[in-house]
Write a structure and sequence with these properties.
The chain has 78 residues and is α+β, with helices and mostly antiparallel strands. The chain has 3 helices and 5 strands, in the order βββααββα. A hairpin with a 4-residue loop joins β1 and β2. The protein starts with a strand and ends in an 8-residue tail after the last helix.
Length: 78
């Protein structure tokens, strides 16, 4: 059995915690940009979005959004 420890809460899990997914609105707020700017960045490949099944809904992984914020490449409004 693989056990994973959440260092912050020191809880034991049978599997790694799932990644937190953010909506378009939540992601735009976190980045401090408009939804239109976020759509532009997504289309240009600056940030990865994930489709939910066969719907038009997309989500962003919080860890990837934070990594994009902290990356050496500065995202600017285009």
């Amino acid at each position: 059995m693989n056990d994973y420890i959440d260092d912050e809460n020191t809880e034991l899990y049978d599997s790694p915690p799932t990644e937190e997914l953010l909506t378009i609105k939540e992601t735009a707020q976190l980045l401090g940009v408009s939804i239109a700017t976020l759509h532009s960045w997504r289309k240009r490949g600056f940030i990865q979005a994930y489709s939910l099944g066969h719907t038009r809904s997309v989500r962003f992984k919080r860890a990837e959004v934070i990594a994009a914020m902290n990356s050496a490449t500065v995202l600017t409004r285009i």
